[in-house]
Amino acid sequence: xxxxxxxxxxxxxxxxxxxxxxxxxxxxxxxxxxxxxxxxxxxxxxxxxxxxxxxxxxxxxxxxxxxxxxxxxxxxxxxxxxxxxxxxxxxxxxxxxxxxxxxxxxxxxxxxxxxxx
Amino acid sequence: xxxxxxxxxxxxxxxxxxxxxxxxxxxxxxxxxxxxxxxxxxxxxxxxxxxxxxxxxxxxxxxxxxxxxxxxxxxxxxxxxxxxxxxxxxxxxxxxxxxxxxxxxxxxxxxxxxx
Lengths: 117, 115
Prior knowledge:
Chain A is an all-beta fold. Chain A is 0% helix and 53% strand. Chain A has strands spanning 3-5, 10-14, 19-21, 24-26, 33-38, 44-50, 56-58, 64-68, 73-78, 87-96, 103-107, 111-116. In chain A, the strands form three sheets. In chain A, strands 2, 5, 6, 10, 11 and 12 form a six-stranded mixed beta sheet that branches. In chain A, strands 3-9-8-7 form a four-stranded antiparallel beta sheet, with no helix packed on it. In chain A, strands 1-4 form a two-stranded antiparallel ribbon. By secondary structure, chain B is mainly β. Classes of the chains: A mainly beta, B mainly beta. The A-B interface holds A 9, 30, 32, 34, 36, 41-46, 49, 51, 90, 94, 100-105, 107-110 and B 1, 4, 6, 33, 40-45, 48, 50, 58, 88, 90, 92, 97-101, 103-109, 111.
């Protein structure tokens, strides 16, 4: 079954320290991967995506993600965390229906990032 | 939250009543989606639409209905048949459903409480 997993419900980090939010996936064919962020009682905001090419993808607000095909992972990273980065983060993978090119996103269950001053 | 509006932000209904959640986008996107979010469960796809007058069931369509009469509008009706309707509902759109590269843009959400 095609799926995406975020193994940590919560990640705690001190402001100024590097942060990593983990994501692993299982898909047939080429993976198309996304990261979104959600602030309380708000919709999701797109951060970055991996389609093909360079394994290190840079996105909004200083975030980046590293695609690792052998480990089927797409971890979100930031060199120096800010208190304002505290939010709920979702990893998602695009899956396709059979032989058609239409697809949908499957989301992980989310990881709460808490950055403390 | 881009060019997607959802209304109302909070909605309260009595059990047994149908309720319709509004979603409008001005991004000229072809594809639109409805998701349900529950704590600790991520987002689950209810319905999606690739073009006007066409829509498909997602993973949890039972107890819900949609229409797509205009490109910019994709309302969701939560019927009395939905067993656990209390949730946060998110509408999204993307340029197209086909093609791998298009990210989805989300509205601000509607929090529905049924008592």
